[in-house]
């Protein structure tokens, strides 16, 4: 049976749109259109399911259900009530609606979400004689409403929870790097390389685990489930087939990956996460202050996310300073990529950046800075300059 392609919109961290566009093109998505903070395109259900497993930078796989201008809650209700929800959901199943609103006559996202919920519930009651319930925690049908400049778009979210939730982190950790951002920064710089990669302040190991997943071409979503697996209009074979495809993607890699952090607790979490991601044998972790770190393998690439002063006891200036000294002592000839959310702190590295890649991480405008650690310029310390 031939079906019209789905219209899919995938959001990402602003700055990573070109990476996401390449990922979607590789998955066979067509008619790609890039906007700030996301990429949209057309795909089959099989491609949408594969995207759930394979996307590294995309945060959600959102299928467009309704799209139109609205000026009032009533117009929003009418737009949504036209969707044949009885095809998507039984009255015994559950739904939840999240909404975001920008520059619109409607100004309360909670109210807009309620209007959408009413439209779905009323339509099912009319068509099936019974209404579905809301389950905010684990809905079968997660709906997402976006209203920007008076234009409403209603989506259903194939993944359910954000794709940064890979399923490999055992517990929520303090100041981790978002997995989609970590993967996107690596891919944007054609990392990891073949040789060796070190994260000397690896925390819970996100950059290393994502690098291992990329190097081995392992789809990051293999360890989680997706909302669309429970949908009545998605044939039962679609997700098992996509999972089988995802399982066949892995390839061999000789990349040597090494991580260190001065906090033993962080290294314990990093090891557990790597284990769950199936990457434990590929990454060597150790508890060590960067001041004393001697890498097992000379790193060709150093990539890290040093502290930005989010915790007062971290002494972030000392950390950046020690990292600079480490790079000059052990990173000669290497490329270093450092994520910084605070230009003032970055000065304490004592090196001049060659490239600056802007990335929005939540409310923070951060930079992924590229340094070439030249042997001839490594010592004495380059005076702090514009970074
Ligand atoms: C922003 S966190 C890194 C988060 C990490 N990318 C993740 O995904 O979990 C910064 C890390 O730098 C580590 N750190 C700070 N100063 C250090 C030093 N002198 N030596 C080693 N690790 C250090 C902290 O313990 C912390 O785990």
Entry summary:
By secondary structure, the chain is an alpha/beta fold. The protein is built from ten helices and 15 strands. The strands form two sheets. An eight-stranded mixed sheet has the order 2-3-1-4-8-7-5-6. A seven-stranded mixed sheet has the order 11-10-9-12-13-15-14.
**Total beta strand runs:** 15
CATH architectural designation of the largest domain: 3-Layer(aba) Sandwich
CATH class of the largest domain: Alpha Beta
Main sheet overview: 8 strands, mixed
Descriptive report:
By secondary structure, this protein is of the alpha/beta class. It has 2 domains: 6-157, 2-Layer Sandwich (VC0802-like), CATH 3.30.2130.30; 179-218 and 251-372, 3-Layer(aba) Sandwich (Rossmann fold), CATH 3.40.50. It contains 10 helices and 15 strands. It has helices at 17-26, 45-54, 73-81, 109-128, 179-188, 206-215, 238-247, 264-276, 316-330, 343-346, and strands at residues 6-11, 30-35, 38-43, 62-69, 94-102, 133-134, 141-148, 151-157, 196-199, 256-261, 283-287, 301-304, 335-340, 355-361, 364-372. The strands form 2 sheets. It has an 8-stranded mixed β-sheet. The chain has a 7-stranded mixed β-sheet with strand order 11-10-9-12-13-15-14. A hairpin with a 2-residue loop joins strand 7 and strand 8. Helix 2 crosses helix 7, helix 3 (73-81) packs parallel to helix 4 and helix 5 packs across helix 6. The protein is elongated and about 70 Å long. The termini are far apart. Mean pLDDT is 93; it is low at 376-387. S-adenosylmethionine binds next to helix 6 and helix 9.
């Amino acid at each position: 049976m031939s079906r019209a392609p789905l219209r899919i919109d995938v959001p990402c961290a602003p700055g990573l749109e070109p990476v996401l566009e390449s990922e979607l093109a590789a998955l066979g998505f067509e008619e790609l259109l890039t906007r700030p903070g996301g990429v949209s395109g057309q795909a089959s259900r099989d491609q949408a399911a594969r995207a759930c497993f394979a996307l590294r930078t995309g945060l959600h796989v959102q299928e467009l259900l309704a799209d139109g201008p609205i000026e009032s809650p009533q117009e929003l209700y009418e737009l949504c009530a036209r969707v044949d929800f009885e095809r998507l959901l039984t009255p015994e199943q559950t739904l939840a609606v999240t909404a975001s609103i920008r520059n619109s006559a409607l100004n309360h996202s909670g109210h807009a979400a309620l209007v959408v919920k009413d439209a779905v519930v009323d339509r099912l009651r009319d068509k099936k004689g019974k209404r579905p319930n809301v389950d905010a925690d684990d809905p079968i049908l997660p709906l997402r409403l976006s209203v920007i400049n008076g234009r409403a778009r209603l989506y259903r979210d194939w993944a359910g929870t954000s794709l940064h939730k890979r399923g490999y982190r055992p517990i929520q950790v303090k100041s981790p790097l978002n997995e989609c951002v970590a993967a996107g920064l690596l891919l944007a710089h054609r990392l990891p390389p073949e040789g060796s990669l070190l994260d000397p302040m690896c925390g819970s190991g996100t950059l290393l685990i994502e690098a291992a997943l990329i190097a081995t071409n392992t789809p990051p979503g293999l360890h989680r489930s997706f909302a669309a697996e429970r949908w009545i209009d998605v044939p039962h074979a679609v997700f098992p087939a996509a999972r089988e495809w995802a399982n066949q993607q892995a390839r061999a890699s000789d990349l040597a990956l090494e991580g260190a952090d001065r906090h033993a607790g962080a290294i314990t979490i990093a090891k557990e996460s790597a284990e769950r991601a199936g990457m434990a044998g590929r990454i060597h972790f150790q508890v060590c202050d960067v001041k004393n770190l001697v890498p097992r393998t000379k790193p060709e690439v150093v990539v890290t996310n040093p502290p930005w002063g989010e915790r007062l006891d971290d002494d972030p200036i000392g950390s950046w300073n020690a990292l600079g000294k480490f790079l000059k002592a052990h990173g000669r000839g290497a490329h270093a990529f450092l994520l910084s959310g605070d230009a003032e702190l970055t000065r304490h590295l004592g090196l001049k950046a060659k490239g600056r890649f802007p990335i929005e991480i939540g409310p923070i405008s951060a930079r992924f800075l590229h340094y070439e650690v030249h042997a001839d310029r490594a010592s004495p310390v380059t005076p702090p300059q514009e970074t």
